[in-house]
Amino acid sequence: MEAAARGEPRPRPGPRVLELYSGIGGMHWALRESCIPAEVIAAIDINTVANEVYKHNFPSTHLYPKTIEGMTLDDFNRLDFDMILMSPPCQPFTRIGSQKDVLDPRTKSFLYILDILPRLSKTPKYILLENVKGFETSVARDKLIQTLESCGYNYQEFLLTPTCLGIPNSRLRYFLIAKLQPGAFCFQTVNWILEGFPHHERDDWKQSKLPSSDQTLSTGDHTEKLNNSECGHADNSKCQEMETLIYKLETSGHLERKLKQNNNLSIQMIQDFLEEKLQNPSQYLISPKVLMRYALILDIVGLTCRRSVCFTKGYGHYAEGTGSVLQ
Known about the structure:
Belongs to the class I-like SAM-binding methyltransferase superfamily. C5-methyltransferase family. The chain has 327 residues and is of the alpha/beta class.
C-alpha cells in the first residue's frame, strides 16, 4: 500500500530549494540542467523586469516580488527549504567600482541573510553562492565564512571561469559551496580558494593561473597585429577571416595570453555555440563608422577562436571592455 493511501506523508523527491536574488532564473536553470531531483519552491527578487522574465521561464514557481529584508524569520521558516541558491549584488565588490563592501547599502540584504541563517528552525543542508572576483577579499566574505563555521558547515571556495568547462569565454567568478555537517564533499576541502575543479586530474584542466584583474582590461601601450596562429590552427586557410582586421592596442602579455588560450584544445571554438540560421543578421553588424573609430580597442574574435572576453551590460553601448566582437 502506498504511503499516501495510508495517510502518511510522501517522501520528498529531492531538496526543496530557495532561490534568492533570482533575477531571470539563471541559478534555477542551472539546477535543472544538473538533473538533480530538486524543486525550487520559492524565488525572491525586487527587480520587476527580471521578475517578468522569471515568471515566463518558470511559471509554476512561487515568486516573491519583494526585498529579502521584507521576509520575516517566520516567512523563511514556513518555506521549509533544504538548499539556498544566491548571487548577491556584486556592485559593492567589483574591481572597477567604489568597493564600499559592507558599507554599501546594497549589501544590506546579504547581511540580513547571514543574520537569519543561524536562527532558522531548520538549517538548510546546502548553500551555493556566486559573486564577482573581489568578493573573496571582502569583509562580507569574512562574515559569510564566520556564519557558516558557527552553523556547522563544511565549505569550499573557488575562483572559476567558463574556460574550466571548455567554454570559450573568460568570466572569472567567485563560488562557494557549503554542506551542513555531518555531510561531506566527495573531495578533500582546503582552507584556500581553488582555481579549478578538484576532481579533474589532467594537466590541461588544472587552472594554475587564472586571469588577474589587469588581464581583463583591453588597452595597453602599443599596437600588435594578431597572426593566423591565434585561432590555434596550423592550416592558415582555416583562419582567413582573421587576416584582415585584428588590430588592437595591447601589451605583449595580453597577446601571449590570447595565443595560449586559442591553442588550448580543451576549449571549444566559438562557432560551436553560434546559431546556424540567424534571422536578419545585418541588424547585428557594426557600422563602418564605428569600426574606423574603435578598431584599435575592439576585442575581435573569429569563428575558430577559442576565447572571448567577459560580456557586461554595456555591450552594444560601449566599444571598450564590454565584450568581444565576432568577425
